[in-house]
Design a protein that fits this description.
The chain is mainly alpha-helical and 244 residues long. It has three domains: 79 residues, Arc Repressor Mutant, subunit A, CATH 1.10.10; 86 residues; 35 residues. Helices cover 43% and strands 10% of the residues. α2 crosses α4 and α10 packs across α11.
Length: 244
């Protein structure tokens, strides 16, 4: 395959992407001219290829889909860069250019912690995420660059949020107000989680606290309960005794 020649400005945009998933896609296309869903799964272990492609698009980089024949003879999706002139010129397309500044601003305001788990993490393990998914609010003219529109997430919370959001009914409806009242966008004040009337409390044990976690598991096992249900029963009994 003939190697494509891209304008310096376009190459600079491609090389500015540092996040692992979109960078993997970009580097592969730069080297081979395209990447298939089969390669994303088998070579890089991404079981949800569209999410990886969307990550690239979120950086304003045009991506085109076409069909090729997979190893089993069936037609599968493949992706290549669109024309450089189609680079997205939205407010958010240049977020990688100020990602370090934005990350530092978020850390100054909220601390180096995951906004979902509310636990401290090494700065290198935290990643910037849109409170309202880019897929829903990215092209909305009312969506600003205010740091309050972003949050810091650890890798585990980021994966959980992506899966939950992409399986939410609002992923198709794209109603921003629905996202604004969701736990995944504003865990400090929410009315639902992916349009389900549920609440969540994430607890992490680290360092010396791991011993306490092991004790909790053993106590839960004694009464034949799963750890989450055991904790909820402890709380129920606590509030019951407190009110009596």
């Amino acid at each position: 395959m003939t190697k494509n020649i891209y304008p310096p400005e376009f190459l600079q945009l491609l090389k500015s992407v540092e996040a692992k998933r979109p960078k993997t896609v970009i580097d592969h296309i730069l080297k081979y001219g395209q990447i298939t869903t089969e390669e994303l799964k088998s070579t890089y272990g991404y079981n949800h290829p569209p999410r990886a492609i969307r990550d690239v698009r979120e950086h304003g980089i045009p991506i085109e889909m076409f069909r090729v024949t997979g190893s089993d003879g069936r037609k599968i999706a493949a992706y290549k860069f669109g024309h450089p002139s189609k680079v997205r010129a939205t407010q958010l397309s240049g977020r990688t250019a100020f990602s370090s500044k934005l990350k530092n601003a978020l850390i100054d305001k909220h601390g180096a912690r995951c906004n979902i788990y509310l636990e401290p993490f090494p700065v290198r393990e935290l990643q910037i995420d849109h409170r309202i998914p880019f897929e829903i609010a990215g092209d909305n003219s009312d969506f600003s660059e205010d740091i309050d529109e972003y949050m810091l997430l650890c890798a585990s919370a980021s994966r959980a949020k992506s899966w939950s959001c992409e399986n939410c009914k609002n992923w198709k409806n794209k109603e921003i107000i629905t996202c604004k009242t969701c736990c995944w966008a504003y865990p400090e004040s929410y009315k639902h989680i992916a349009m389900r009337d549920i609440r969540r409390l994430d607890l992490l044990w680290s360092g010396d606290e791991v011993t306490d976690y092991d004790i909790l598991l053993k106590e839960a096992e004694k009464v034949r309960e799963e750890a989450p249900e055991y904790v909820k029963n402890l709380l129920r009994n606590h509030f019951k005794n407190k009110s009596s």
